[in-house]
Automatic annotation (TrEMBL):
Keywords: Signal. InterPro entries: Autotrns_rpt, PAP2/HPO, PAP2/HPO_sf, Pectin_lyase_fold/virulence, TAT_signal. This is Phosphatase PAP2 family protein. Residues 155-185 are annotated as: Disordered. Residues 206-330 form the Phosphatidic acid phosphatase type 2/haloperoxidase domain. Residues 1-35 form the signal peptide. The keyword Signal applies. It holds the Pfam family PAP2.
Amino acid sequence: MPSSATGHALTLNRRRFLATSVAGGAALVAVPAFAGWLPAADAKAATNPAAFVDDYKTNVTANQTPETNAVVRILGGFAKVWKTGGAWNTGTPLMPEVLRANMRYCAHITARRTEAEAKQAFITDRQHQSYSVIAGLGPLAELYKAGAKAVTSITSAPDGTPAGKISDSLPADAPAGSAVGAGSHDSELGKVAELVDTVRGPFASSNPAKFAFQYPRPWRMNEDSEVVDTGKKDAFGFPVYESEVIVAPQLLRQRGETPAEDGGFPSGHTNAIHLASLAYAYAVPERFQEMVTTAFDLSHDRIVSGMHSAVDVIGGRVMATALAAATLADPANAELKAAARAQALAYFQEKTGTTADTLYAHAHSAGPDSDPYSDRDANARTVKPKLTYVLTRRGRDTDLTVPKGAEVLLETRQPYLTAAQRREVLRTTALPAGYVLLDGFEQWGRLDLFTAADGYGAFDADVTVTLDAAAGGFGAADSWRNDIRGEGGLTKRGTGTLTLTGHNRYHGGTVVEGGTLVAASANALGQGDVRVTGGALRADKVLRVRGSYVQQGDTRLELLLRKNHGPALEVSGRVVLGGVLSLRLDAERPPVAGTTVPVIEARRLRGQFDRIELNSDTLRAVPVYTTDGLSVRLLKR
């Protein structure tokens, strides 16, 4: 075994540990979620528990039951998988198929771990979590470290097994006033560092839940056997091994030595990583999705290292999501969180020479060589499978009631939405029900913050959104990248700009009353009618309107003209025209003088634009109206 050389070996026969029959496991699933835990004096609390955000300060070591500890309560989905025993190695699998898949996954990951991955897992393990996640700030990361005076002593990993314990500490050459982790509270970014430390405060420990569940770490459940391929594959396509979880050699002497005090579920490092990431995401929402991705990425290192299992990591994420929301929603922290956001915005604008409107572009200006989270699509691929890992869905989906206070997590990312609207964003982008570890009390595990940052997943009722150009940042302009479904519609108001990029299928129609609505995909405007009564509608590509299109008053329609292409606007129903048509020539394939270019195709067209503009110094556009469309003849000026 990999631990034998260290003197810390603790072997538990995994066949015995997980040898609950399927039939037996099915019978045990019917046991109430916290059977065996409930002191008679706490029975009343089980029927009417307080909301997590109102009760999070119960997460202290003295409280280790779901009735007394809000964290243990929200992790109750795990009590359907695992029944805690009287000692660390006497628990009972209630869903053995889940725990078998969990161990197979861990064995697969650690068996294929590269030397570079092992070293990175060591850094993630030993480095202060509030420091390690700063990498998610991308082009702003080094500026943050300098402004916050944030330092670390863990900058590399040894080739083999260190002789003793290693902890992050203040380097000898650190500048005066520096601090390990998020940085110094007396620095230029002291309020941000204080916010991170507050979110990771005295009620954020994973230890009470570890003591409550007593689920062993994966390396404590190893078999005395070699890694042997059985020739079979599991439901995830991975080979099935008779195997052990192999701890990274750099971490062999960093492990806990007292099993009863060193449980696996939930992962404490994962909890800390997500807490710090969400605190930074609140203060620097320009990197919101990247900070969320960083948390998932670094948390996965806990599995790569062999120190934790997939279910441990899921548990750490669930509790951190709830704890971050509770701390940010706590009225006692209202002044601090506002000061942290204001401080970060002012500092980064000054250091980068940007404004609130241009800081986002600077924060995304680096490529993958210097910003590991520069590719949004790659980030999505990183996050999606880690939301559920080895879990499979069971049963019917049920609509999510968003946990009280959860909307605060999007407060700076979507400042133009009301609290109720941010709750709708969380609800319509949430994971479906049926994942056992995610379906605990209040179902915090179903929240998908990466997807929620991209706006609504559905318009189940009509949505009105107002963006103000004077507000700056996300308050002035934002993009909703999700594919939006639902029976409701969208009304865009205000002077700011909203961009829709998804393949949208909402049926309630689209109204532009002010500012600019950008349709960045052919199906951005869903399935209904479109009315422009104020402001502007801009299409970056060919635009399809499935219903009717009406434009009236002091309004603008901005379309792109391309050589040898169909109409820029295709309307399935009737068209009523007014206002201004602004045409842009495609930079790559512009139409040339002397050609007639189709602009609008409709079932029936009525009215004309008050004026047609063309962004060309050499060409002018002469309209050709028909009963079913509009073309323009391009002539030299």
